[in-house]
Amino acid sequence: MSDKVITRRAFGQMAVGAATMLAGGLALPGKAFGQAPIHPFADKLLFLEGADQVYAFSHLDQLYATRVIPAGGKVREFKTAKPGFDVRFDHLGQSIDTAAFIKASRVAALVILQNGAIVREDYALGHGRAGKWMSFSAGKSILSTMVGAAIRDGHIGSVTDPVAKYVPVLKKTAFDDATIRDLLRMSGGEAWNENYLDRGSDISKHLAIIAARNQPGAILKHMTGLGRAFPTGMYNQYRTGETYLLGEVVAAAVGASLSSYLSERIWKPFGMEADAYWMLTAEGGIEYGGGGTNATTRDYARFGQFMLEGGMAGGRQVLPEGWIAEATIPSAPAQQDGKASGYGYQWWIDTPGTYTAHGVFGQLIHVDPKRNLVIAMNRAWKTPGEESDYALSGAFVQAVSAALS
Q1: Distance between CA 96 and CA 158 in Å, rounded?
Q2: Keyword Hydrolase, does the record have it (predicted)?
């Protein structure tokens, strides 16, 4: 993989390595300091199979420390449109309808909205409408949106502000000259290893700290110790740690937990139907911004609808003017061969005019403004993400988009 470009294929390959490494469990630090009891799945999240995998993805609060994202007020109810909506598409020589896709792609929940109404809703794998599911890295898109909210509220000056302005411990580190925009685009320049095959990699250390639950501040300390790989802003390379730091920036700027800020600005006023929760770095610690929001699939779809409607919630403009357009333009280093695909402010731009939140194991929030369309899916792929998984998923999204044009 070139250091210059993020690709979902490379992202999936790195995560597949995690499954291999996690077969024996992570090396959990801090045992000498009275480690909290650890759920048997906590250090094997990416390696679980079948019913164990479904349980873990839908009961993350039983595995890790979490904080509630309260819903409240009037629920934004959905009308039902196009009863019996179905698609059939050809993929690798096979004719596949929606039911066959749900089975092949191990879909636990599917919600399709057009014009704010439900076009199709399905549940499988023993999962149901009231169940919550882990976002994995699809949660990065939620966090980046919170950066916009903090700018709109005046807590953050602009994306050109240095991150060290809000998190002073980052001064005289690899992030000393990094701006918020650099981290939104994952171009901080620090020496970061996202290879899950390596027990000593940076992401493996973060996962181990989260599983231990008793080391508040340890992840931030780890980030301050990283060296520099290349000049800030030069390359666009996938680094979960940078999104974690964005969470530190937002929490420091607003003076509240990420969960409470998300609740007050979006979850309550937009009418989410259920409390969500967010995985923490430790008991009582900060939320892990790199991924770990947990919500119903209907509420993930509502978040997509919030974006589709320009960032309005409860009659209030939550995001700055032009934020969504800015956030969904691929940063220059991520453009190849002149194609409009790449990575914006923690959003994937798969096709021109659309943007998508992706998480390993098949989590997805797809937003298509032209068609006034939102597709939310939670899945339990057998691996974090093979090219074949993404190809089938993309074919389904394209088929739905074509049918609802």
Answers
A1: 46
A2: yes
Contact indicator for 61, 243 with CB cutoff of 8 Å:
no
Please give the structure tokens belonging to residue 125: 């794998």
Lowest model confidence (mean pLDDT) among 43-52, 107-116, 209-218, 307-316: 43-52
Separation of alpha carbons 296 and 71, rounded Å: 12
Q: Is the pLDDT of residue 240 over 90?
A: yes
- The identity of residue 15, as a single letter, is A
Question: What is the Cα 389 distance to its own chain's centre?
Answer: 18
**How far, in Å, CA of 75 to CA of 83, rounded?**
22
- What is the 8-class DSSP label of residue 23? G
- Burial class of residue 260 in the structure, from the number of CB atoms within 10 Å of its CB (0-12 exposed, 13-18 middle, 19+ buried): middle
Domains of the chain (ranges, CATH numbers): 8-403 (3.40.710.10)
Angstrom distance (rounded) from CA 235 to CA 86: 42
Residue 203 contacts residue 193 (beta carbons within 8 Å)? yes
Amino acid (one-letter) located at 210: I
What is the signed CA dihedral for 129, 130, 135, 141, rounded to 10 degrees? 80
Q: What are the respective helix, strand and coil percentages of the chain, to the nearest 5?
A: 40, 15, 45
Angle at 154 between CA 148 and CA 155, to 5 degrees: 80
CA distance between the termini of the chain: 36
Q: Taking the alpha carbons of 18, 22, 24, 25 in that order, is the dihedral positive or negative?
A: positive
Q: Which two tokens stand for residue 235?
A: 């390359």
By three-state DSSP, how is residue 239 classified?
A: coil
**What's the DSSP call for residue 198?**
-
DSSP state of 337: T
Distances, alpha carbon 92 to alpha carbons 96, 98, 291, 347, 389, in Å: 10, 16, 32, 28, 12
> Would you say 21 and 97 are in contact if contact means Cβ atoms under 8 Å apart?
no
Q: What is the DSSP letter of 369?
A: G
Mean of the per-residue pLDDT values of the chain: 90
